[in-house]
UniProtKB/TrEMBL annotation, chain B:
Gene3D superfamilies: MetI-like (1.10.3720.10)
Keyword field contains DNA-binding: no
Similarity annotation: Belongs to the binding-protein-dependent transport system permease family.
Keywords, ordered alphabetically: Cell membrane, Membrane, Transmembrane, Transmembrane helix, Transport
Taxonomic placement: Bacteria, Pseudomonadati, Nitrospirota, Thermodesulfovibrionia, Thermodesulfovibrionales
Membrane spanning stretches: 14-36, 81-103, 110-132, 138-157, 192-221, 241-264
Organism of derivation: Thermodesulfovibrio yellowstonii
Protein's recorded name: Peptide ABC transporter permease
């Protein structure tokens, strides 16, 4: 874990220092009249006059104490900027993950049970569609159909204008309406992967001897499927869930900018456009940290649901 | 082996249609100046945002340019980025994976740690950061997509090399004093080529998806250069008035990526000896 964290900071730092010219020269471009003394002062302010390894160590010291520096754009603390955006992004991603689980697992299990049926083949088509469709395009189409033509759902933001004055339940409905499109579209690609994975994992388990044993001792099929097969089939799915997190977080850049959701993805996008290096670095690190936390949670969940791992540790 | 794989793919209807479409897109990309009815850069202020018609089957965009011609030219960009990014990813992944698997020890540890670190980043974040820091251009996009997509290939090749390097023919080669480079490139990698080809096929589709996403965000191929993602990005701005801008380029991306994925899936089945008994 620690070497990976170290590697993450190193790559962030390398990426930002790929820039031809420093942020100071960038500000110079903005105002060509800046005197050499002013540029020097600016460089000193951002610590750009020091050699690169020294700058990395200084920056690392800051990051370890969770100080991500100040934004070039508005001079606010990057940490505060991220903190106010993060909850929306995490909420959206959690909802998507939940939706993926709720839909993908029953679909995967059912099509494994009915291998080769029409439903199973339809799932294959859906999986290929999910893997091949550009999700931002899907978002555009959904906006045209449900937002523009039918007018059922709002197509941008997370609340209507004046939502603050609404009573609580109306505000909740308003909020949910705004989330339906983004969350559904975000789940689409993951849905395809997860249901296919559940299907193959389930097929694998159904071939096992203990399933035959359970059936032959006369257990009802429902018990065999749910208590015996499903529990084992879901183990690898837990791991996949952890692996799906970087994709979801990365996708939030695209979805938040399409649906104008003021989350971390949108902040990242606007910082990238404005070359706000401290914010870019900060979000890169937070994104990687979220991935690591996701994997950690998946490992812990695996530990809880799979008794074999606990036993192995004692041996 | 090659003949069996080819035979199995030609028997698979889905793979065949994918392959046909890939040939078709290649044809369109190579001969785009003949296929496109109009100059994709030609601005016509009298024909701004006209819906699809006989003269303009995909309509016109916000500057009166013919969308069909722009989609045709966009095929070039997508295929260029798709194949070159795939090449970079496969090359990097194969070399690093082979080195890690062959030498083992601390070299292996360092390379595989690098894989873990790279996998911890949300790919799109990393790509966007690099593209934002450097000026976005088609070459930078190819290189960045390639350099953020090699990790799976490296793992795959490493696993293949690990299982191959203890085999008799490799031990024999080592016994007669062949150099490490010769053993890796002449004896081990040719035997690991098929899974790499499968990964390569999928990664072309993946790279095209990422490129279109970047262009859609305005950090990929820069206008006026025609690209599928770029047209969609304009489509978003005119979403309430010009649905055709949002529809056709997306269909092009979808069908192209789908074709590569179908072909990749068929290749994976075809090289899997488990399926051979069915013949």
């Amino acid at each position: 874990m620690i070497p990976i964290l170290f590697g993450i900071t190193l790559i962030c730092f390398i990426v930002i220092n790929l820039a031809p010219g420093s942020p100071a020269t960038f500000q110079e471009e903005l105002s060509p009249k800046a005197s050499p003394e002013a540029v020097e002062a600016l460089k000193k302010l951002y610590g750009l006059d020091k050699p690169i390894h020294e700058r990395y160590l200084n920056w690392l010291k800051m990051v370890v104490t969770l100080d991500l520096g100040k934004s070039f754009v508005d001079g606010r603390n990057v940490k505060d900027k991220i903190k106010e955006r993060l909850p929306i992004t995490v909420t959206l991603n959690l909802f998507s993950l939940l939706l993926i689980l709720i839909i993908a697992i029953p679909i995967g299990v059912y099509s494994a049970l009915k291998q080769g049926s029409l439903f199973d083949r339809a799932l294959t088509v859906f999986v290929f569609t999910g893997f091949s469709v550009p999700t931002f395009w899907l978002a555009l189409l959904a906006m045209i159909v449900f937002g523009v033509n039918l007018g059922w759902l709002p197509i941008s933001g997370i609340q209507s204008i004046g939502a603050e004055t609404m009573p609580f339940h109306e505000r909740l409905v308003d909020w949910i309406k705004h989330l339906i499109l983004p969350v559904t579209i975000m789940s689409f690609a993951g849905l395809a992967g997860m249901s296919r994975y559940t299907r193959s994992s389930m097929l694998e388990v159904l071939r096992q001897d203990y399933i035959r044993t359970a059936r032959s001792k006369g257990l009802p099929e429902r018990v065999v499927i749910i208590r015996y097969a499903l529990r084992n089939a879901l183990l690898p799915v837990v791991t996949l869930l952890g692996l799906a997190i970087p994709g979801l977080i990365g996708g939030s850049v695209i979805f938040e900018s399409i649906f104008s959701i003021p989350g971390m993805g949108q902040l990242f996008y606007s910082s990238a456009m404005a070359r706000d290096y401290p914010t870019i670095m900060g979000i890169l690190i937070i994104g990687a940290l979220l991935t690591l936390i996701g994997n950690l949670i998946a490992d812990i969940a695996y530990f809880i649901v799979d008794p074999r791992i606990r036993v192995k540790r004692d041996v | 082996m090659f003949k069996i794989v080819l035979k199995r793919i030609l028997k698979n209807k889905l793979a065949l249609s994918g392959l046909t479409f890939i040939f078709f897109i290649f044809f369109v990309a190579i001969f785009s100046s003949y296929v496109a009815p109009y100059d994709p850069y030609k601005i016509n202020v009298y024909k701004v945002l006209t819906p699809p018609s006989k003269e303009h089957p995909f309509g016109t965009d916000e500057l009166g340019r013919d969308v069909f011609s722009r989609v045709v030219y966009g095929a070039r960009v997508s295929l260029e980025v798709g194949f070159l990014a795939m090449g970079i990813a496969i090359f990097t992944g194969t070399i690093l994976g082979a080195i890690a698997g062959y030498y083992g020890g601390w070299i292996d540890t360092i390379i595989m740690r690098l894989v873990d670190v790279m996998l911890a980043f949300p790919t799109l974040f990393l790509i966007l950061a690099v593209v934002a820091v450097l000026e976005p251009s088609i070459y930078i996009i190819m290189v960045v997509i390639g350099l953020t997509g090699w990790m799976d290939v490296a793992r795959l090749v490493r696993a293949e090399v690990l299982s191959l390097k203890e085999r008799e023919f490799v031990l024999a080669a080592r016994a007669i004093g062949a150099s490490a480079g010769r053993i890796i490139f002449k004896h081990i990698l040719p035997n690991a080529i098929y899974p790499v080809i499968v990964a390569a096929t999928f990664s072309v589709g993946g790279a095209i998806l990422i490129e279109s996403g970047l262009s859609f965000l305005g950090l990929g191929i820069q206008p006026p250069e025609p690209s599928w993602g770029g047209i969609l990005s304009v489509g978003k701005d005119y979403i309430t008035v010009a649905w055709w801008l949002s529809l056709f380029p997306g269909v092009a991306i979808f069908l192209t990526v789908l074709s590569f994925n179908l072909l990749g899936e068929a290749l994976r089945d075809a090289i899997d000896p488990k399926h051979w008994a069915e013949d």
